[in-house]
Design brief:
mainly alpha, MetI-like fold, two-stranded antiparallel sheet, 16 helices, 2 strands, transmembrane helix, Putative sugar transporter integral membrane protein, membrane, sugar transport
Length: 299
């Protein structure tokens, strides 16, 4: 009995260790390489064989003293929270609607959401570019027919309308995940508890706030956490819209800013430092939600 009790914990540990080692190697080496690169001067010359020069925290110093970085950071944070909030609100609303739909209608709605979610980003961006095209866009045509002065309107030229279009696209692509996840959580809420609250006189809003939301709170926290991380790292949508006519300097987020420093500017050391800055920013913004999740687990 004693030998079995001693041996049992070693089996799960032995099964987990190989996967943990592979995960640490897959994630740890790129992160370590990124840290080392951020401490070096690594440009086009280094790509052709010249040894990189060690500059220590010089890249970070140049980065934080650049006023353009802080404008991009504030823009990124604002874009992240606006999109995460809209995605969460719309996704929760869609999930509540699906919970009240008939089976046939719900399946049709889920198929539509699944197709929107599964569509490749580049393919989806091609369609959205056509919809908001200055000359041949369907959006301009519909708004002009409705009486507005939108003939030849350039949606991507002004930063505000650029981010309006970007928000529509990002939210459209993100809502299906939130809706599916929250709908799955809603199906696990005990019906007898909701019925008991209704018998006690609780209205629909009271049942939703005091019964449903607490029951799905762990899922809500995970969804919000993931959505903030994803919206903070948006790149493809912004980059594609910039290529379609947006002004890069006025519409850069952290992802495209890092791309501009590294790929376009050839300053890979500073780009790596900016990537590390983005990692720290992600940790800072998501820390409160992680803390709430841990507290929820303890409770």
């Amino acid at each position: 009995m004693t030998r079995r009790a001693v041996r049992r914990p070693s089996l799960p540990l032995g099964l987990v260790l190989p996967a943990t080692a592979l995960l640490a190697l897959a994630l740890g080496y790129p992160l370590l390489r990124q840290v080392v690169l951020s401490l070096q001067e690594f440009g086009l010359a280094q790509q052709f064989g010249q040894a990189p020069e060690w500059v220590g925290l010089g890249n970070y110093r140049d980065l934080v003293t650049d006023s353009a970085l802080w404008v991009v950071v504030l823009r990124t944070i604002a874009f992240c929270f606006v999109n995460a909030g809209l995605t969460f609100g719309i996704g929760l609303g869609v999930a509540l609607l699906m919970a009240r739909m008939s089976r046939t209608v719900r399946i049709l709605a889920q198929c539509g959401l699944l197709l929107a979610w599964a569509m490749p980003v580049v393919a989806a961006m091609t369609v959205w570019q056509f919809l908001f095209d200055t000359e041949y866009g369907v959006v301009n045509w519909l708004l002009t027919r409705a009486g507005g002065d939108f003939e030849g309107h350039g949606w991507l030229l002004d930063p505000w309308s650029f981010f309006f279009v970007a928000t529509i696209i990002v939210v459209w692509m993100s809502v299906p995940f939130v809706a599916f996840t929250l709908y799955a959580a809603l199906t696990q809420v005990p019906e007898d508890v909701v019925e008991a609250a209704a018998i006690d006189g609780a209205g629909p809003w009271q049942r939703f706030v005091h019964v449903v939301l607490p029951a799905i709170r762990p899922v809500l926290l995970v969804v919000v956490l993931l959505q903030i991380i994803w919206d903070l790292r948006v790149f493809t949508q912004i980059y594609t819209l910039q290529k379609a006519g947006g002004v890069s300097d006025d519409t850069n987020l952290l992802g495209t800013y890092i791309y501009t420093l590294g790929i376009k500017g050839g300053d890979f050391g500073t780009a790596a430092a900016a990537a590390m800055f983005m990692l720290v920013l992600t940790v800072v913004l998501t820390a409160p939600y992680v803390r709430l999740m841990l507290k929820q687990e303890e409770d």
